[in-house]
Amino acid sequence: MFSYIFSGDFPRSKLLTLLLVVIVVGLVLTPWLFPGSRSMETAMRIAIFIVLVASYDLLLGYTGIVSFAHTMFFGIGAYGVAITLNEMGRGYDAIFIGTALGFVGSVLLAFLIGLFSLRVKAIFFAMVTLAVASAFTLLVSQLYQFTGGEDGLTYSIPRELSPAFKLMKDKVFGVSINGKLVLYYCILFASFGLFLFMLRVVNSPFGRVLQAIRENEFRAEAIGYRTVIYRTATNCLAAGMAALAGSLMAIWLKYTGPDTTLSLNIMVDILLMVVIGGMGTLYGAVIGSTLFIMAQNYLQELMKVASDQFSAMGLPLLPDLIHPDRWLLWFGILFILSVYFFPTGIVGRLRKAKT
Amino acid sequence: MSDQLCLNLQGVHTHIGQYHILQGVDMKVPRGGVTMLLGRNGAGKTTTMRTIMGLWQASQGSVTFNGSDITKMETHDISKNGISYVPEDMGIFSALSVKENMILAARTGEMDEARLDWIFQLFPAMKKFWNWPAGNLSGGQKQMLAISRAVIEPSSLLLVDEPTKGLAPAIIGALTEAFVELKQTDTTILMVEQNFQMAKTIGDTVCVMDDGRVVHSGKMSDLAENEQLQEQLLGLSMGAHQ
């Protein structure tokens, strides 16, 4: 059964398996293990980013395509849901229509971009995607009557998915069973489902061709594969997955704006998560997203605790060096070190250590 | 070997960037048997192979395969038409297992059992490293995989670019035996090779290239017997190549 669920692609390292189990169990039990809205927000962000980063890994890690338009597709998915919820009101129909529109729109746009530019060299394709993504961000900002411009859109979701909707009168192990919890699990299991779907794709004959293209495009072409079709199909698939991740994000946040979906910073974050986790492994998306988002959310607090401790001990310089205001510096150093010590990503390193 | 042509190159010119590499290649490859493509380094042998495969587009001239013009065809279509190619660098997909490399070449995703058994007879070592990552194989094993991958689907023409390059003599012996075996099939082989001993053993006909042109065509046995011609065409006598 496990082989079916994981498409025969197991982590292939005990430590990696343990890490993945800890992450999955942690995400499933977050409402109970770490009560509070902040931990739930972090867990949700991790779950959604696992899908987003894994979809980018399909492009970069499995096919060797560098794209800067991935957040654009994430944004299209998010804005699809945001605009329909805003226009049609809080209903499931709006969610489904918005998700479907975002998905189809992303796939179509990815198809057009791929058709016109996947024949060119990698660097030119990257530049084309960067230009298209920038144009799209500008468009979103200009079309403020639909998108809310720079302020974004705030909307309501069906009442059954809000904290005000109580499913049970009493708390279960200290956690109230309400609509928000239902939404949490809906998004979590949707994310798991999408991840497993991508795992299936990369372990299918289609996935093998993608890996062949990444390794030696000419050779793949010479054994009879029309690589441009495979590259375009991957571009569409990754865009569709990113759009679905965007829709999930929009439903969870009840807010969609350029900063939460389209920003170039998010694109850089995704790139880092893929590289840190390990390109071409998909499991790397789980590890990379978790570590990155945890560091983004908790490194500052951790540094504050350490700085206070060192201060109390009367140590010179050290408390200033790890002052929470300098968290971005340490954040950067941590990632430089991780790329230096894990050039094949954490998953690649763990698998190599095993062999 | 029949009198019919499997492959016919007429006045083929190929430019790579600003360089004019092939300068009017005329070459006829008869159906069946092995045609050796010899020549000094930089003569244009690999470019000829890549031009036949459509990896470099011919800027002038025509390439005809089994009577059809394939000059402007895309590589994947040329492959589907029945030309297999073992490049000089072998083109192994290192991250995939040997089995996955073979499945990819089978294209339908299903390998013909009888053909696979025949490949295992050609290269018994393939069975041993069947599930290994292809990147972990030695040079000789990679070459065996590259050839196996090219013959897992029956093809009319097999292009092989320097299969013995950098390999140990024992492996070269095994490869030579495999090619002798392959000669018994319907597949025509066009092979670039620097190892004259191997060329002499398996070649039926020969084309010698120099400065982007074919400067000699004929029977391999005639060239093997004529040391003066070898010196004139290849710069060295057969003895030195052995």
Quickly describe the structure:
Chain A has helices at 2-5, 14-33, 37-63, 70-88, 92-117, 122-142, 144-147, 179-202, 205-215, 217-222, 227-253, 258-261, 264-277, 283-312, 318-321, 327-341, 345-354, and strands at 153-154, 255-256. Chain A has 355 residues and is an all-alpha fold. In chain A, helix 3 crosses helix 13 (264-277) and helix 8 packs antiparallel against helix 11.
Give an overview of the whole structure:
The complex is a heterodimer of chains A (355) and B (242). Helix content of chain A is 75%, strand content 1%. Chain A is mostly helical and 355 residues long. Chain A has one domain (2-354): ABC transporter involved in vitamin B12 uptake, BtuC, CATH 1.10.3470. A two-stranded antiparallel ribbon of chain A has the order 1-2. Chain A is globular, with a radius of gyration of 21 Å. By secondary structure, chain B is α/β, with parallel strands linked by helices. In chain B, strands 6-7-8-3-9-10 form a 6-stranded mixed sheet, with helices on both faces. Chain B has a 4-stranded antiparallel sheet with strand order 2-1-4-5. Chain B is globular, with a radius of gyration of 17 Å. At the A-B interface, helix 9 and helix 10 of A face helix 2 and helix 3 of B.
